[in-house]
Design goal:
The chain is of the alpha/beta class and 320 residues long. The protein contains eleven helices and ten strands. Helix 6 links the parallel strand 5 and strand 6.
Length: 320
């Protein structure tokens, strides 16, 4: 009887293992969903759609982008967390849901550092500080100098940008007042109308207004000056340690089988190097993250979390 029970249990285990192996081997055999954490037309959404079009050609299955906005990306992250860990549900994760949310949101409901693993970085873009074209402020040093004599209001639309602003305040040993908005469009309006002293946000979104002369860029946040704005200094030219990007990457649940994960890594890497994606990155003014594979992207996520956790602790920002 013991032998029969042992044989039965062993047979079930072998059959289960065989089925799991078969599922991994023929992945994908049905459509794949990408959950974008922000509304249609956002940077994360548009990059996901550009990649999805190329990845479905490579993988031979439809790759469908679904928008799940809300709670700075937490809604989409929770949906991926609750889906099976089989590679058929991908998180289009930006710095907000994957590095910043655990710092600023109490009872988040997911742990981006433990419950997700990176597939591949997609793209990163510099942040930009801007003022009205009529403003006397010409540089970030001018803005900091004003903050030493009076209250200076800086508008933006996410906790990530708030922490980026506080980083400047800490670096300059001044106080800047953060004014939260629901989106960047209203920040532009209030900067141009001089209701705000400055705005901080995505470079790509602000570029056309700067080039048309309605706003003036005073600083960008990357390692080097942006090619479209060669006369605008980087923040690191004032504070050498200040380098900051908004980024997007693909993630799956940590329990996703290794062979399935590997196929997604390969497909993403191949898609990013197609002529269509090369052109997409050029038109968006963003930097493709070719070298940010799973290990590099996971390390980068952790470094981002530690950096912004340190800033939040230094200025007293608590999870709410």
């Amino acid at each position: 009887m013991r032998t029969a029970k042992w044989f039965g249990a062993s047979l079930v285990a072998l059959l289960t293992a065989g089925t799991a192996a078969a599922q991994g081997t023929d992945f994908p055999n049905k459509p794949i969903r990408m959950l974008a954490p922000f509304a249609a037309g956002s940077g994360a959404d548009s990059s996901a759609r550009a990649l999805a079009e190329q990845m479905q050609r490579i993988l031979g299955q439809p790759v469908l982008v679904e928008n799940r906005p809300g709670a700075s990306g937490a809604v989409a992250a929770m949906a991926v967390r609750q889906a099976p860990a089989d590679g058929y549900t991908i998180m289009v994760g930006s710095n907000s849901p994957m590095s910043v949310n655990p710092i600023v949101i109490k009872n988040l409901g997911y742990d981006p550092l433990k419950e997700f693993k990176a597939v591949h970085g997609i793209g990163r873009s510099q942040n930009i500080w801007y003022v009205a074209n009529e403003s006397p402020v010409r540089t970030i040093s001018d803005l900091v100098a004003q903050a030493r004599t009076r209250a200076v209001n800086v508008g933006s639309y996410s906790a990530g940008y708030q922490l980026a602003m506080e980083w400047v305040a800490l670096s300059s040993k001044t106080k800047l007042t953060y004014v939260p908005y629901k989106g960047q469009a209203q920040v532009f309006t209030d900067v141009i109308g001089r209701q705000l002293d400055a705005g901080l946000g995505d470079l790509g979104g602000a570029l056309s207004l700067i080039q048309s002369g309605k706003m003036r860029a005073i600083a960008v946040s990357g390692e080097a000056r942006h090619p479209a704005l060669p006369n605008v200094p980087t923040l690191r030219e004032v504070w050498p340690e200040y380098i900051n990007y908004s980024w997007t990457a693909f993630w799956v649940r940590t329990e996703t089988p290794a062979d399935v994960h590997a196929k997604l890594v390969s497909a993403t890497n191949r898609a990013m190097k197609t002529p269509e994606l090369t052109k997409y990155f050029e038109t968006q003014g963003s930097e493709p993250m070719y070298t940010f594979g799973p290990v590099e992207m996971g390390r980068y996520q952790g470094e981002e979390y530690q950096r912004f956790k340190g800033i939040a602790d230094a200025v007293g920002i608590k999870p709410e």
